[in-house]
From TrEMBL:
Family to which this protein belongs: Belongs to the AB hydrolase superfamily. AB hydrolase 4 family.
GO function terms (MF aspect): acetylesterase activity; monoacylglycerol lipase activity
Provenance organism: Microthyrium microscopicum
Top-level taxon of origin: Eukaryota
InterPro entries assigned: AB_hydrolase_1, AB_hydrolase_4_sf, AB_hydrolase_fold
Signal sequence, renumbered to the chain: none
Domain AB hydrolase-1 residues, every copy: 171-279
Protein name: AB hydrolase-1 domain-containing protein
Gene3D superfamilies per the UniProt record, alphabetical: alpha/beta hydrolase
PANTHER family listed in its UniProt record: ABHYDROLASE DOMAIN-CONTAINING PROTEIN (PTHR10794), ALPHA_BETA HYDROLASE 1, ISOFORM A (PTHR10794:SF63)
Any GO BP: medium-chain fatty acid catabolic process
Amino acid sequence: MASYITNVIPRTLALTVFLYIVAKPRYRLYLISRFLNMFGFGSLELTSSANTVQLSLKAGNKKVQFADQENITLRQLVDSVVPPVRLNPLLSSGHLQTLYVSLGKGPSAKIHYKRRLFVSDNTTYPGSFTTDWVVPAPSTPEPRDTSLPPRTHNFAEEEFTTFTTSEPTKPLLIVLHGLSGGSHEQYVRHAIQPLTATGGFDAVVINSRGCCYSKLTSSKLFNARSTWDLRQFVKWIRSTWPERRLFAIGFSLGANILCNYLGEEGADCELEAGILVGNPWNLDVSNAILCNSFIGLHVYQRGLAAGLKKLFERHVDVIKQNPDIDVELVRSAKYLYQWD
């Protein structure tokens, strides 16, 4: 820390002052904000239309502004509840924060799960997927099941039957993780913890096929249009608990899958709300942006490809049954775009 104060900060300050002098006026505010980030003074920019989209009611031709019963718009709600940003001075950028979490650093959210396997009812994309349900910590520690992530155990049949015949009063949050991730990811656990501990929610994570220590039972993995497992699961929940309030949140690729699901379901969607976090809205454009910077190409593209290749090798005996897959070509991929 002393070295950071005596070396990094003065040099950064000198560079910032120099760039401020030579930069055009429209870039100076940005330079100031970046320097202040080093001391934890982050900035959060909210972007919205001056006139938000009006919603058409199912009955009649009337259109209404999106607002609650007290006529508070979504933008006003966000402005009122989002707290000031206070960054860690040593983690003043998104790149540093991403690296820090990827190394397994930071406080741990110790979420306990019970896993349930679902067999797909989709004849075009047969297979299976797993769901991890958040449960209370056991009163006595259970031995680790090394075939599953930490603090995760399979539902026993009788246990799951009792679980599904209960009448829960809490709303249920369905969580979709990012590329090659799962319920064990830090960002998933940290998002779930406050909602299930004190927020009055139950939560369940849908693991993409083959992810999070799950067995792959078909020769195809997943992509941004893989909405069929989510659709089947939501229908199952609705038939099991007809009156239960349902919400969903997706991260990164999971956000894109959720976004596609919401669009495909339209007015028939069973979810009351969907939250998209870090959604790569246009995958082609997102890929081009990653390829156009050194850190994007050699850190993120390589890192994402490495995660997928690790997943591929874990299930290669099943995946290679697909005649369209060139195993050696997949193994030679260094970047995410080559994998695609």
